[in-house]
Amino acid sequence: MDGRSARKRQAIMDAATKLFLANGYQGTSMDEIAALAEVSKQTVYKNFADKRQLFAEIVLKAASRADEFIRAIPQVLADAPDVEAGLRTLARRYLAAVMQPALLQLRRLVVSEAGRFPDLARDYYKLAPDHVMATLAIQFDELSKKGMLDIDNPAAAASQYAFLVLGLPLDRAMFLGAEHGLTPAAMNQHADAAVGVFLAAHQPL
User: Fold this and answer.
1) Would the pLDDT of 178 be above 80?
2) Residue 122 — pLDDT band, cuts 50, 70, 90?
3) CATH number reported for the structural domain that contains residue 42 in this entry
């Protein structure tokens, strides 16, 4: 794909994302996407077979952005002076990554369309939340083997850590949207407190 074609494709995806988030899947037409992207409808269909494919590509591309955080997990823990510091840094970065407004909007849209696109919702879950859980479990297992954490079930510990860090803030953001009222400082305080609870259960005696 040449540069001009790539720019047009990206313009279509950007326009579609904006419209899907504003109007929902059903409330968005390919005509509107073409108009906002400033391309012909024929160009839209040249790049995407239909609205369903376009929506799926946007969702899966967003899910793939979790890879950056996932790749950072081992290094964040390895670079920290101790386990508590590593878990706090990781919790803050985890929360900041998930609480991005555009990502929250897309997550809300995926959930609302899960009945229409169950396979897409499942793929999003596997690529993002589930992949994070699996990576956390591997790291917690390694830390436990080194005697730095006391964990019998790494997968369960990963889910506990994730819920402690994300549970309340994510619920507030999903239901209240931009009015969730959590400042970056408040989210950092929440992340630190979550790590304290996690360590109370899993710190070696």
Assistant:
1) no
2) very high
3) 1.10.10.60
